[in-house]
Structures are given as C-alpha cells and as structure tokens.
Amino acid sequence: MAVADLSQLVKAYDVRGVVPDQWDESLAELFGAAFVQVTGAEAIVTGHDMRPSSPGLARAFARGAAARGADVTEIGLCSTDQLYYASGALDLPGAMFTASHNPAQYNGIKMCRAGAAPVGQDTGLADIRALVEGWQDGGAPAPAATTGTITQRDTLGDYAAHLRSLVDLTGIRPPASGAKAAGDKVKVVVDAGNGMGGHTVPTVFEGLPIDLVPLYFELDGTFPNHEANPLDPKNIVDLQQRVREENADLGLAFDGDADRCFVVDQNGDPVSPSAVTALVAARELAKNGGTGTVIHNLITSWSVPEVVRENGGTPVRTRVGHSFIKAEMAKTGAIFGGEHSAHYYFRDFWNADTGMLAALHVLAALGTQDQTLSDLVAQYDRYASSGEINSTVTDQAASAAAVKSAYESRDDVTLDELDGLTVTAADWWFNLRASNTEPLLRLNVEARDETTAAKVRDEVLALVRG
C-alpha cells in the first residue's frame, strides 16, 4: 500500500483504522518490529478477535516481532481481557488485534507491556509510531542476528479458571422474590453480539449453577445482527426482549472484543454502569477487609464515591480513559476501578479491565440474596442522570468557553477542569468534555431528581448549541 498516514491511525491508546484502506499486513509487520524495539522484549504474546482481517494482521505482527529477535506466543482467538490475562500470567508484553465495537471494515492493535501495563501515547505508542513512520520512508529495519520463534498456546481454560478463582459462584441460586418460579440455577441471557463473548462465555460459565441462554454466540466479524456496542440502546433491544421472554433473572451484553459488559435486570431495564461500579466496589472492599482505594472517573454517579466511603474505602476521582485509570490504580494500589462506559478494572487482574469479572460479581451478588436484580441495584442507583449527550459544534473551545463563562461567576457552584469542565452545585453536577476524534462536545448531567436534571441539561445544551 501507499505510505500510510499514521496520524489518522495511531490514536491516544491504540492503533485503529480501516483495512486495507488505512493499513494492512505489511504495516502490521512494521508495528510488530517497532513494538519489540520499544519494549526491548525478548518474548511477546499476541491474540486476535473474530474479524476477517484479524488472523492475517496478527500473524504479520508476529513475523515483524520475530524478525527483531523476539519469541512470539500466539494465543489465537481471544477476548481483549484474555490477552491481558496472558500478558499478566506469562509476564510478557502483549498485542491484541481488534477494533472493539467498530464496524467490520475496521481493525486495530491494543498493546501492553508485561503484566498488562498499558501502552499509550505517553508510554511507548508515540515511539512506536515514530519508528514505523521512519521505516515507511527509509525501508524496513535489518533483521536481528537470530530470528525469534512463533509458537501457539491455548490460554482460554486458564483464563476462565483464574476468573472463577476470584469470585465464588458455587452456591448461587435464583432470587426468591423473583417473578419466575424458583429453580436451582440463575437464568441469564447473554448477548455476545457475534463477538468474542461467544468464545469466552461458554468456557467461563462451564460447570457453574447457571442456566445460560446464548444470543448471537456465532463468531462473525461482520456483525450481522447488530453492532457490538451495548452502550447504544438500539443494540440491546434483542437482549431486553429475550430476557422478558425467558423470564430470566438478568441479561448481559458484551462488546466486540468482550472487554466491556453491560447489564439489564429481570425486566429488561438497563442497569447503570455506575451502579455496577458501586456494587462491585462494595464487594471488593468487603473482600479486602473493608478497606482500600477505589478509582472512578469523573462522569460516574455521585453514588460511587458515596458507596465506597460507606463501605470503608477511599474513592479517587480521575479523568476519563483507561490509561488514566490504570495509572492511578498503580500509583495508589487501588483494589478496583470503574468507568461509566462499562469498563471495570481489578487489582487482582493486573489492574486491567475485564467485563467478564464484573459480570461474575453481579451474578454472585444476585445469587446469594433474595432480591431481584432491580431491587438489589436500587441502593446503588440513587440519582437522576441525562446519559451522555453529544452535540456537534463548529468550535469546541468557543462553545465550552461560553458555558464556563455562564457559570464561573455564580456563588452556588464550583468549577474544575480535570477533564473538560465540571460544574457542581448542591443538588446537581454536569461535565462537558470535547471529543478527541470528532467535532463533538459530550455532556453528562446528574441531579437529585429528574426535574432538576432536565432543567440543567436544557440550560447547558442551549449554551452549547447557541
């Protein structure tokens, strides 16, 4: 292919673009060589999702890495958190080939150092990009004196066993107060969206007291049923309907690479990821003797730091984004971290994010008491929220400045700019952030009641949209 524009391909946290228009196997090979040079790795591990282009890209990356002298362990088809498991358990830098929830023509690389430590712009990705750009212009690097080996290894069973060792699910049972007749197993509908959840869920759930109803488990990187992005309401409609039809206790939806998990209750109603964060935080704190630090980003609900404090923990607020969460977890020794985008991070999982482990926590919490899931999570879902509202603007900075100007002179609010603009009052708060990739401003509002939330939402949108 022609020389690729890496400014469009290398993002803040990963590599992502259209195949073959923006990148192809020849470029993947250069990325493999650059990854080894930047990490100094003598051995690495790679994995890939079910997209048609993923196996070829992953093998090309392995060839590039081996040419630089690194031994490559290929774990093949896997979820992103399974790759993180392999990086942690084998203590090797890793590369996962996936474009998560993006359409079929996209693909990408999520890279990490040994122990699943993230590789982002400030932690090696910019250096990798610079090497690849140089090699595109001046020719590929000379191979190492000794070429590395490429071998295969199956880690799915070990990954599943590790997750099950962290959450006790042996005694779970359906809630006694549920509408359906009591049975001996918790009934859960799982929508894999034709993504990697269809590969990992059967093995993780094997032997557990769970009545699994699979939905779209067939691996298909063209996503024939719906986009594998459960945060978009239209993509969980089938799950909601199936939960009601099956009279199930809950439903789970995974994104394309199965590192995010979204939950619906027994009525098919969405459970806020902030509520899941609070629920899991309470469980992790209890497991840690009622003490520990929990990370949450600044658009999670007020309920998250409240629940953390109520359970003896220390909440720490961060910017949005996995690199910030993981860095703060490493800095503070946090036991858990959660984002409102349904990413959940665990100290016991090398500070990496795993939606599967969060799902097991929800199943354990539900199956060891008598309430339905909607009743159980009500204690963690205390406020009214707008959800994330995107506005297309011609000038992000000017629109954001107009909002700041409208609130900074008020005595009844405080402002901070940790990530975008957050304005906080006694009964409400909002955060307004610019998208890094699109001409959008993203607004999140939370208040103590629906009326106030709607009022603040409308006030801010009027300023944003002129």
From TrEMBL:
Residues 8-132, 178-268, 278-383 form the Alpha-D-phosphohexomutase alpha/beta/alpha domain. Gene3D superfamilies: Alpha-D-Glucose-1,6-Bisphosphate, subunit A, domain 3, Alpha-D-phosphohexomutase, C-terminal domain. The keyword Phosphoprotein applies. Pfam families: PGM_PMM_I (PF02878), PGM_PMM_II (PF02879), PGM_PMM_III (PF02880), PGM_PMM_IV (PF00408). The keyword Isomerase applies. It comes from the Bacteria. CDD domains: PMM_PGM. Keywords: Isomerase, Magnesium, Metal-binding, Phosphoprotein. Its cofactor is Mg(2+). Residues 388-462 form the Alpha-D-phosphohexomutase C-terminal domain. InterPro entries: A-D-PHexomutase_a/b/a-I (IPR005844), A-D-PHexomutase_a/b/a-I/II/III (IPR016055), A-D-PHexomutase_a/b/a-II (IPR005845), A-D-PHexomutase_a/b/a-III (IPR005846), A-D-PHexomutase_C (IPR005843), A-D-PHexomutase_C_sf (IPR036900), Alpha-D-phosphohexomutase_SF (IPR005841). Belongs to the phosphohexose mutase family. This is Phosphomannomutase/phosphoglucomutase. The lineage of its organism: Bacteria, Bacillati, Actinomycetota, Actinomycetes, Kitasatosporales.
